[in-house]
Amino acid sequence: MKKNDLVGPYRDYFKLIPADTDELRKEVFRIRYNVYCEDLSWEDSSRFPDKLESDEFDRHSRHCLLLHRSTGLYAGCVRLVLANSDITRSAIPLQQHCSAALNPEILDIESLPRPSFGEISRLAILNQYRRRVGEKLTNDGLGSELFSIQQTEKRRFPHIALGLYLGAASVGITNGLNAVLAMMQPRLARHLRLTAGIHFQQVGDVLDYHGPRAPFYITRAGLLDRLRPELVTLLEAIEEDLAVFQFQECQQT
């Protein structure tokens, strides 16, 4: 295996699946209930008696599942929320829940054409895949070590969250978006920039939203122009797995 080959380990261990049916979306919502309601208690479990955590933004989202090949189980999920075309409603979750953090002098969401942007949201990884120091306290498994793209015998594939972020990015590219936003820890944005060449721009203040998080923004060019070469090839492999999103519209009601 070539040094820093990420496609080989990805193909060995995982596959990103487009959750484009009702049954697969239920798998997404089950994972989110497990992580957000049971593990972290970030959401009130009594609101979801069917043990499927969902919200109003799922209706205009593209959902991805990460399949763990050796077990046949889904390890995690992520969604890309496409901006709501109804101008009487918030375009994306970040605008609804964290609008106070946004700085319109840096980025005015209201001025963006709604078909042009979305939000990476609701990333969740099951606890059996969050086993290093500090990982169990986070939805994405980003513990004190974060992730590294350097390969070792212990972990040949980089952090699962990186694959899910690239999956959401792939969906955004396929759907022709010019930019995406995300609420994330500033240290994660810094680490993405330094280790992966993914340059998110902070567009607002840090607030306590399940820990210190801030709104971040990245354009299509900001992703593709600086992404490290080994991650470009990984993104291409993920795009192949998720190509179905190019042809099918979201069907949930």
Q: What does the model show?
A:
With about 250 residues, the protein is of the alpha+beta class. It has a single domain, classed as Aminopeptidase (3-Layer(aba) Sandwich), CATH 3.40.630.30. About 30% of the residues lie in helices and about 20% in strands. The chain has 7 helices and 8 strands. It has helices at about 5-15, 20-40, 95, 160-175, 185-195, 220-225, 230-240; strands spanning about 15-20, 60-70, 75-80, 115-125, 180-185, 200, 205-210, 210-220. Strands 1, 2, 3, 4, 5, 6, 7 and 8 form an 8-stranded mixed sheet that branches. Strand 2 and strand 3 form a beta hairpin. Helix 4 packs across helix 7. The chain is globular, with a radius of gyration of 17 Å. Residues about 130-135, about 140-155 and about 245-253 have low confidence and may be disordered.
Helical fraction: 25-40%
Question: Which regions are unreliable across 5 or more consecutive residues at pLDDT < 50?
Answer: 132-137, 141-156, 247-253
Q: Give the helices and strands as they follow along the chain.
A: HEHEEHEHEHEEEHH
Indicate the proportion of strand residues.
15-25%
Please tally the β strands and state the result: 8
Rg from Cα: 17 Å
N- to C-terminal separation?
45 Å
Structural class: alpha+beta
Shape: globular
Given this structure, which CATH class is correct?
Alpha Beta
Any idea how many domains? Answer: 1
Tell me the name of the CATH homologous superfamily: Gcn5-related N-acetyltransferase (GNAT)
Architecture (CATH level 2) name: 3-Layer(aba) Sandwich
SS element count, helices: 7
Reported by name, the CATH topology is Aminopeptidase
Which sheet architecture does the biggest sheet show?
A: 8 strands, mixed
On the 0 to 100 scale, the average pLDDT is: 85
